[in-house]
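pipeline/complex-builder :: batch 7 item 3
reading input block
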Amino acid sequence: MNLFKTITIRTPESVELEFTLAGIGNRALALLIDYLLVALLISLVSIIASFLSEQLVSLWAQIGGGTDALDLWLVAIAFLVTMAIYWGYFVGFETLWQGQTPGKRLTKIRVINDNGKPAGVFQATLRSLLRPVDDILFIGFFCILFGQQEKRIGDWLAGTLVVQSETGVGEATVRISNSSQTLATELMAQANVGNLLPDDFAMLRQYLQRRQILTKAARQNLSVQMAQQLKDIVELDQLPEEELPAEQFLEAIYVAYQQKFGDRRRAY
Amino acid sequence: MASPSSRQLRPLNVGDVVSAGISLVRAHFKTYLGLSLKAALWYLVPVYGWAKGLMIFAQIGRLGFHEVIRQPETVALSLRNVRPRMWSFLGVAMLVSLIQLALNYAISLVAGILLVPLAAIGAAGAAAAILSGVLIVAMQLIIFAAQTWIQARFWMYDMVLAMETESEPTAAISRSWELTKGSATRVLLVLLVSYLVMAPLYLLSFVPFLFTIPFFAGVSTDATANEALGIALVLATLAFFFLFFFAVVLSAPFFQSLKAVLYYDLRNRREGLDLQFRDRPRDQDRP
């Protein structure tokens, strides 16, 4: 069984793109964060506004106007400003940040068009106009939970999808020791680094990025196990140095592959 | 290219854990609900039933974990695996509650000592009273955070007991502590989100007590009103127990599935379960 729903989009150029849908958990959490921020923003504005309106009312009274009509106007303005913040927040962020709001950015999801392109102002506006409708009785919640494409009503009308934006865990860059750098040049001459598939290289990079959060024992075991497998893959009969630490070997292979093929190489 | 679905899952974030937990329950709703009902019924039997109930709840977690790693187990097989440890589930649960109780008590004690000077500030004047109020509320929040943090660090023990059957039962406690190291905030967020999702269900079970409110009106003036109140309270309590039981049965599969996904994810982060080179036949025609 698949725990996460995926969707394949065919672009006009006949390129198939696969996306993982955001999932109810991410979307609920993102909404929680966004609503907290909106509430904070509205309360901040209303505190400032209440000070200003008090001044305005007393000024108006001094001039000699009736305050009843003014109060009504101020209430109307306050209502409009609140709505503007509520909708402006979602429309503004989703347009400027390519489908992401602060909540979505933290939960690593984004809004895209049904055709895979980034969502525009029009889509963002439709989505946020229908947001209150989706919130009534958790209609949107159930639509996302039971729908095949996880669309709430706003998503249906705007023709948008909410997908995961790929991000890694661990360090962003791989740290390589100096001794591994020199070892890499030796390995490039001795071993068939080209035997490594792009997938293997990606896995190797994953390990090097995530090794810091691994437990000591797991790090030890994994590095030795991976080094042994790699030694077979690159057809290296004997290690360049005796008593070579496994991690240093892994780093060296990583550097060697990177120097030969760059970070990405197409699969055959 | 191997399809991504044939691989193990990458490390997940909080929302992913909740989504995956929900899809797990949805896919196996009948099985998990049946087990959950069985466990909840056993709970009504003292001691032996408690151990059995805890074991069945952990069994749901074990089934969930095997789904996540794509090596499904049958209900009968998983039962055979956890049954030898039945009494460990009760023993370790009691041990963990004792440890948590002691730690929570210690936190409250320290916080209580710190609260005294904070409250004393308030006597200095109106502004100081506001300051002291804010500080006291902040202190309460810190206490709450500390206690939930401890709960998060111990939360995985029954998954460990159900999964790592070859190690000592009491080692499950330190193992849970080790697995959640550096991930306490993540576990906490998962806990908070799942409590939020399940809160309405539990709140529902308190509804019967609302109906007893009118009966309080005539109390102490006449005897029949007292009697009526008594009957109403008994009925409300019965209804409460019934609804609470229902809430437990319904929410337990969700919590256990969540735990299974979280246990997988924590192990993945700490032990790199997904860090494996792909098995492949070595092709001959490679240059």
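note: Residues 1-6 of chain B have pLDDT under 50 and may be disordered.
queue -> next item
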